[in-house]
Specification:
- By secondary structure, the protein is an alpha+beta fold.
- It has one domain.
- Helix content is 31%, strand content 29%.
- It has four helices and six strands; from the N terminus they run ααβαββαβββ.
- A six-stranded antiparallel β-sheet has the order 3-2-1-6-5-4, sandwiched between helices.
- A hairpin with a 2-residue loop joins strand 2 and strand 3.
- The longest helix has 18 residues.
- The protein is globular and about 45 Å long.
- The two termini are 24 Å apart.
- The N terminus is likely disordered.
Amino acid sequence: MGYSLTWLTSVGIIALGTAVSACGASDDGSEETNDALALWRSKEPAEYAFVYNRGCYCPLEYTAPVRVVVKDGIVLSARFADGSNGGQRGVTIDDLHREIRSWSKGEPDAFEAQYDETWGYPRTASVDQEERMADDESLIAVTCFAANARDDACPVD
């Protein structure tokens, strides 16, 4: 089985996040995560588009960037760069917040999250549940966010 470039890049980002956590940054993102969720809920637009990807020891279909369009809290579409259906990858920002909160509450060996200061959506989040276990690291990265759902908002590359 080959590794995708996304996976290899994500492993590097996770390793960097782990190193930052080990150097004194908070390893419990609960307070920051809760604050970001509160900010998101106070500002959540009625419709929005975003592009995100995951990093993990997973197939490319799971790690490739996906453009998601949400209106009134419901996913309208999720598409890969080639225009194909992103299917199960269609999530809302609230869904990403829930997943990241579950990571931080699970007492991981390393946890790092960064949130947008204006909107409160997660820019990046990484977790390593057990430092000594191989291939259990995960990453979420939101690479584009737009407070509208126009076709030209957040193109996926």
